[in-house]
Specification:
The chain has 123 residues and is mostly helical. It has one domain. Helix content is 93%, strand content 0%. It has three helices and no strands. The N and C termini lie far apart (89 Å).
């Protein structure tokens, strides 16, 4: 049931926050004025609040928040890719450092052997 609710919620959210639905609702809201115009300030305020803000502004807010989410998602994906590239570079550098340390240890060991030989010959 949870999967169905998520699927349905996602579909309805996408439909209700789409620009085509915004234009349809805006047209319907404005066409109401042809048939019945508010006569007083209170009726105009009621029309503006109940119809305009709920009918037009909410789908527009949903659309802009979805777009902002898309931008945020893109930014997070780009950041993830950069971090993963940097991590791969660090791992490669670490491997090279380990090889260099092993080479230096070998050279130090050879130098110790040479120093011991020179020390034996002089003593």
């Amino acid at each position: 049931m949870s999967k169905f609710n998520d699927w349905l919620g996602d579909k309805l959210s996408n439909i209700l926050s789409s620009m085509p639905l915004f234009y349809i609702i805006a047209f319907l809201v404005l066409s109401l004025l042809i048939f019945e115009k508010p006569n007083s300030l209170v009726e105009w305020m009621h029309y503006a609040i109940a119809v305009f803000f709920q009918g037009i502004a909410l789908p527009l807010l949903g659309y802009t928040s979805r777009k902002a989410g898309d931008i945020q998602s893109k930014l997070l994906n780009e950041t993830h890719d950069v971090v993963m590239d940097e991590l791969a570079s660090i791992k490669l550098q670490q491997g090279m450092n380990q090889e260099e340390i092993a080479s230096l240890k070998k050279i130090i060991s050879e130098l110790h052997q040479l120093i011991k030989e020179v020390h034996r010959r002089t003593c």
